[in-house]
């Protein structure tokens, strides 16, 4: 293999690669072939201790710098990421199996956006002066301290930056634990931040499964935990963090509705449904996997959708012509196959896909089911794969109620040409990240996150600053102190 996917060592701690082969072996598998392309070891207690000690030391040093100086480091890191975008994208494709066509534009570039945006904000994180009628007060925006980021496997570079950039901008240090399925890319983020001038230990990356994540979450010297993962893991991590009264951000799963009204521009709605179901082979938390189509346009919608699916190019993800890559792992493909079987068994109509191709790699066909009802398993549970469920509706109030009838609340989308209806409906959908005549855009300037079981807190935008800093308030008396005795 021309590209060397084996990292220099498993962890990046205190400004350098660090190895400890006493940890559990993690084999990194290239999803397109099933080959082992790298080996790393889960962090031992010694590695965790080194990450915590160096993180706390670096945090004190970093917080003593001005916001402008900190921001300069983040913006330099953004520039380095952009210069190396091609190389980083190829690695992201090896790590995840996502097609290079996507990774070139959505991963290191999105990470660089976050570093640039929060680098720009860092110098403007000030408090307030408060007039108290003679006396006065002021607030200081302070860092939380040592933050832990725990990542999912679908966007390893992006998640490492979406958590790291606001944390560092606010003057915190971070220990990031990538998903054990995709351990490679975050190491590059750590390398780049170090090269850009971040003090040694400020952004440490350590590997491991849930057990390593669990140790970090319960560590008393950790002040905040930000998780991207599934709802069951979120429940465990949130509960463990609560024991130590730690700050949390939870970016969890979804089963989001995408509503297509009868007056929608059908090609755009079909495009939105494709982006919201098949990008990254369906492994996107905000996907609009319940596509509610007005019954009067169901046939036209399905016909256009089927036509557009002839444009699927499934194959070698390193080939830029490929637009559908494999699933991230055998395990994830097995899960998706199970849901497709349930869809068939519970009586949904298979419109497209539904098969697992022969041969190496964890490929599965992008799949569309129609005539799906609210009770079917594929309409209720997060699949995290390329499976679109098309349901029909007749009435606005009815579809809003059905769209909201889920424990999740990450995203929601509406396609309609009626501007009043668009805002009226979005106003009633219980979701954190919404779209009108679009789907799955995630610019760094807009808050991202869920309501209900989909999460707590927001990533990106100025809102993320609230989740990586805290206010100290100071009362200043100008006169004498009056006391009862
Ligand atoms: N809302 C969002 O921003 C996103 C949410 N997701 C969600 O992530 C899920 C898929 O990712 P997976 O990696 O399978 O999720 P997962 O929940 O299995 O694992 C997520 C991370 O948590 C770690 N972990 C597991 N148990 C832990 C514990 N007890 N304590 C601390 N850490 C622990 C894992 O090692 C991994 O790094 C999907 O459900 C998806 O919806 C994925 C991407 C974005």
Automatic annotation (TrEMBL):
Keywords: Metal-binding, NAD, Oxidation, Oxidoreductase, Potassium. The active site is at residue 251. It holds the Pfam family Aldedh. InterPro entries: Ald_DH/histidinol_DH, Ald_DH_C, Ald_DH_CS_CYS, Ald_DH_CS_GLU, Ald_DH_N, Aldehyde_DH_dom, BADH. GO terms for molecular function: betaine-aldehyde dehydrogenase (NAD+) activity; metal ion binding. Its EC number is 1.2.1.8. Residues 21-474 form the Aldehyde dehydrogenase domain. It is an enzyme of class 1 (oxidoreductase). It comes from the Bacteria. GO terms for biological process: glycine betaine biosynthetic process from choline. Transmembrane segments: none annotated. Coiled coil: none annotated. NCBIfam families: BADH, PRK13252.1. Belongs to the aldehyde dehydrogenase family. This is Betaine-aldehyde dehydrogenase. It comes from Tropicibacter naphthalenivorans. The gene is betB.
């Amino acid at each position: 293999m021309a590209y060397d996917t084996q990292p220099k060592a498993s962890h990046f701690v205190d400004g350098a690669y660090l190895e400890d082969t006493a940890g559990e072996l993690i084999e990194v598998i290239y999803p397109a072939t099933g080959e082992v392309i790298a080996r790393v070891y889960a962090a031992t207690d010694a590695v965790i201790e080194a990450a915590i000690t160096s993180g706390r030391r670096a945090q004190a040093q970093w917080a003593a710098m001005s916001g402008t100086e900190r921001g300069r480091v983040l913006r330099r890191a953004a520039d380095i990421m952009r210069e190396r975008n091609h190389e980083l994208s190829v690695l992201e494709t090896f790590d995840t199996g996502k097609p290079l066509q996507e990774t070139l534009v959505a991963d290191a570039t999105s990470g660089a956006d976050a570093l640039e945006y929060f680098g720009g904000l860092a110098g403007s994180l000030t408090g307030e002066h408060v007039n108290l009628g003679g006396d006065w007060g002021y607030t200081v925006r302070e860092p939380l301290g040592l933050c832990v980021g725990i990542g999912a496997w679908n966007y390893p570079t992006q998640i490492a930056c979406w958590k790291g950039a606001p944390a560092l901008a606010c003057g915190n240090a971070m220990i990031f634990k990538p998903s054990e399925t995709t351990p490679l890319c975050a190491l590059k983020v750590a390398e780049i931040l170090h090269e850009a001038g971040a003090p040694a230990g400020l952004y440490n990356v350590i590997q491991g499964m849930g057990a390593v994540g669990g140790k970090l979450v319960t560590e008393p010297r950790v002040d905040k935990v930000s998780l991207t993962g599934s709802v069951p893991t979120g429940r465990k991590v949130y509960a463990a963090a609560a024991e130590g009264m730690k700050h949390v951000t939870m970016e969890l799963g979804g089963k989001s509705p995408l509503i297509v009204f009868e007056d929608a521009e059908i090609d755009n709605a079909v495009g939105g449904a494709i982006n919201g179901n098949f990008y990254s082979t369906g492994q996107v938390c905000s996907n609009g996997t319940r596509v509610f189509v007005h019954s009067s346009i169901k046939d036209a919608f399905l016909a256009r959708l089927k036509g557009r699916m002839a444009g699927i190019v499934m194959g070698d993800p390193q080939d830029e012509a490929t637009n559908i890559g494999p699933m991230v792992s055998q395990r994830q493909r097995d899960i998706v196959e199970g849901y497709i079987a349930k869809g068939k068994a519970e009586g949904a109509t298979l419109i497209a896909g539904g098969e697992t191709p022969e041969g190496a790699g964890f490929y599965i066909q992008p799949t569309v089911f129609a005539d799906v009802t609210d009770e079917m398993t594929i309409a209720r549970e997060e699949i995290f794969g390329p499976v679109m469920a098309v349901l029909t509706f007749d009435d606005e109030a009815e579809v809003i109620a059905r769209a909201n009838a889920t424990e999740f609340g990450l995203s929601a989308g509406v396609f309609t040409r009626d501007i009043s209806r668009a805002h009226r409906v979005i106003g009633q959908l219980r979701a954190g990240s919404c779209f009108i005549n679009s789907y799955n855009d995630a610019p760094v300037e807009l808050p991202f996150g869920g309501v209900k079981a989909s999460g707590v807190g927001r990533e990106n935008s100025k809102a993320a600053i609230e989740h990586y800093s805290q206010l100290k308030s100071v009362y200043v008396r100008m006169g004498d102190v009056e006391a009862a005795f």
